[in-house]
């Protein structure tokens, strides 16, 4: 079907931002794919989210609900438009193909092969629209022996090496309390999209971006593999410390805990003077990280003895005065009342359809000249179906 610039489902939302005019078709659900599309939408992209008519994206009903809808949804799907289509329906598949003709980016996070099963193979969509960029996020990637295994973020975090490092030595590893594997994959996907858009300026062609959840986690594991390759070293959990870097840990105070990072050479000396341990500050064996790691238990004990006699506020005031990095362990309540969060516009109030106010995280990253923003609330299921499909129907009628 031919395209027409005078009859298009895509709109300029007046959002501004560096991605204004970018057309993104989102076919994913839950976390990784939608988070990637949300990030693009925050910076001006027109994101059309395709959802199943029967219930929509399951994230709508995850965790705590307000008036039947997850408050998480208000963050994950802000700035998007919702179109209710059953991808198992051939007519719905035809609509997606038509939308893809004019799209810049398609985002999906189904299991490998699912998109092809819907008659929406990326190669076919790109044959019709050679400029289309397709972001595919899956547990294990589009190739390899694990390709067809179901993969969620928690499994990817384990396979990527993160889960083995979390928790206390000798105890069952614990998971990070958020879907960090999905989010890391989403951010890698956004990076891939931006790189592909940049390359398209030269070649005029799109391409497929293959992001595996476990690889996104693995990419953030620092020296884990090289240390095993060079020394046969298998890192294990270390609680709140960071192995091989000292001193950096969580320490108990009279009314809570603080994090102290005194691992820079000059920072370490300032920290030791702050806790009245000039002997350690002047010890030549502790002048660099190697020596400090060898005596980390002694250093942790000295710092812990000092913090145990003080409140969190007293410890942090002393650390600030000495220019030593330290911080409290924030809860959601701490975040919501923190003046720095507020000053950086990271506590974003939005007005919901019922007139109530909900605070959601602000926009990251901060761009000086073309910042992102919250331009429209997360849509109700199928809220924009008529708006999006009307131009397509009109075009079909005009073409006879």
Description:
- The chain is an alpha/beta fold and 400 residues long.
- It folds into two domains: 244 residues, Crotonobetainyl-coa:carnitine coa-transferase, domain 1 (Rossmann fold); 84 residues, formyl-coa transferase, domain 3, CATH 3.30.1540.
- The protein is 39% helix and 15% strand.
- The strands form four sheets. The protein has a six-stranded parallel sheet, with helices on both faces.
- A hairpin with a 5-residue loop joins strand 12 and strand 13.
- Helix 1 crosses helix 8.
- The chain is elongated and about 90 Å long.
How would you briefly describe this protein structure?
The protein is built from 18 helices and 13 strands.
CATH class of the largest domain: Alpha Beta
What is the CA–CA distance across the termini? 11 Å
Number of domains: 2
Q: Rg to the nearest angstrom?
A: 25 Å
Question: What do we call the CATH homologous superfamily of the largest domain?
Answer: Crotonobetainyl-coa:carnitine coa-transferase, domain 1
Mean pLDDT, as a whole number?
A: 95
Sheet having the most strands: 6 strands, parallel
Number of strands: 13
Beta content comes to 5-15%
CATH architecture classification of the largest domain: 3-Layer(aba) Sandwich
Task: Please write out the topology.
Layout: E1 23-26, H1 32-42, E2 46-51, E3 65-66, E4 69-70, H2 71-76, E5 80-84, H3 90-102, E6 105-108, H4 114-117, H5 122-128, E7 133-138, H6 153-159, H7 162-165, H8 180-203, E8 208-212, H9 213-218, H10 224-231, E9 248-253, E10 256-261, H11 265-274, H12 278-281, H13 289-294, H14 296-307, H15 312-321, E11 326-328, H16 332-336, H17 339-343, E12 347-351, E13 357-361, H18 385-399
Parallel strand pairs: 1-2, 1-6, 2-5, 6-7, 7-8
Antiparallel strand pairs: 3-4, 9-10, 10-11, 12-13
